[in-house]
Design a protein that fits this description.
269 residues, disordered C terminus, five-stranded mixed β-sheet, alpha+beta, 15 strands
Length: 269
C-alpha cells in the first residue's frame, strides 16, 4: 500500500509538473482567469489537477478528492485526498520560479501520506504517518535552532483575507524584531517543506486553505516538528492560520503571535 501510494503520487506529481513546466513563462493572456481579488487560475492549474485526479481515480477509485480548482468529488469515503495542483500560482504567472504540486491523503481525518513536488528543481518531499519524512528519499528533520533571535522564518501575507491585515501587520512587526529574519516567497507548501528539512526554522501564515498545508503538516510532524493554528490547536480540513516549527521554537512563537489573533472571529480564519 505504501509503495503504491508513493509510486502513484510521484508519477502523478511529475506528470502534472511537466504540464506546469511546459507553460512556465509561456502563458498567453487567455490562459489566465481571475477567481477573485488577487486570486488566479491558469490553464496549467486545471490541466495539472485533472492529471492528479485521474491518477487517484485509476489507482484508488473509492477515495474522495478535494481539489483547489474543482472542490469535492461526489462520493463519500473514509479516505480523502487534498490536492493543490499548483501552489504559488501568482509566482507561476509572473515567471518567478517558486511553486509546487501538493498532495495529501487523509484517513478518517488524519493525514497518512503527503507529497510536495517542485517541478523545476525536481525536489520531491514526502512522508508517511509514523514512517519519517524524506527529500528525494533521504531522511530529513526540522532544525534544532532553539533561540528565536537566531531563527530564520518564512511567512505569507493574508492577501485573501484583508480583515486579518491589521493583526498580521502587528504580529509581523514584533516577529521581525525578535527573529533573525523573515522570508515571503509565495508558496506555503514549499515553505512548509523547507521548514521540514531545516532550511527555515519556522513558518507562519494567518489564512490558508487545507490544500495549502495538509501535505506540509504531515511532513513537519514526521520530520520531528510541530504544527497548529494560532491557538495551538491541530490543523483540520478547513481554512486556518498555520504555524510550524521545531518543538522548542513552536511555543515561543505561538506566545508572540497568538495574542494578536485572539479577538479575530473564527469564521474569518
Amino acid at each position: 500500500m505504501l509503495d503504491l501510494l508513493l509510486k502513484t503520487g510521484l508519477k502523478a506529481a511529475r506528470a502534472a509538473g511537466e504540464v506546469i513546466s511546459r507553460d512556465f513563462r509561456h502563458l498567453a493572456g487567455s490562459d489566465i482567469q481571475a477567481k477573485g481579488k488577487n486570486d488566479f487560475v491558469t490553464r496549467a492549474d486545471t490541466e495539472a489537477e485533472a492529471i492528479l485526479k485521474a491518477a487517484i481515480a485509476n489507482h484508488f477509485p473509492g477515495h474522495r478528492i478535494l481539489g483547489e480548482e474543482s472542490g469535492y468529488s461526489a462520493q463519500a469515503s473514509e479516505y480523502l485526498w487534498v490536492i493543490d495542483p499548483l501552489d504559488g500560482t501568482t509566482n507561476f504567472i509572473r515567471g518567478i520560479p517558486h511553486f509546487a504540486v501538493s498532495m495529501a491523503l487523509l484517513r478518517g481525518g488524519k493525514a497518512v501520506f503527503g507529497l510536495i513536488y517542485d517541478p523545476l528543481s525536481k525536489e520531491c518531499f514526502h512522508a508517511f504517518s509514523n514512517q519519517g519524512a524524506f527529500l528525494n528519499n533521504a531522511r530529513i528533520a526540522v532544525s534544532r535552532t532553539g533561540k528565536l533571535s537566531s531563527a530564520l522564518g518564512a511567512t505569507g501575507f493574508p492577501f485573501k483575507a484583508p480583515q486579518l491585515l491589521q493583526p498580521y501587520a502587528s504580529a509581523f512587526k514584533i516577529m521581525m524584531s525578535k527573529c533573525q529574519d523573515l522570508r515571503r516567497c509565495g508558496s506555503a507548501a514549499l515553505d512548509l517543506a523547507y521548514t521540514a528539512c531545516g532550511r527555515y526554522d519556522f513558518f507562519w501564515e494567518a489564512h490558508l486553505l487545507p490544500w495549502d498545508f495538509m501535505a506540509g503538516k504531515l511532513l513537519i510532524a514526521e520530520a520531528g516538528g510541530v504544527s497548529g493554528d494560532f491557538a495551538g490547536r491541530e490543523l483540520a480540513v478547513q481554512t486556518s492560520p498555520v504555524l510550524a516549527a521545531n518543538p522548542v521554537l513552536f511555543p515561543k512563537i505561538l506566545k508572540v503571535i497568538g495574542k494578536f489573533f485572539k479577538s479575530t472571529p473564527a469564521a474569518l480564519l
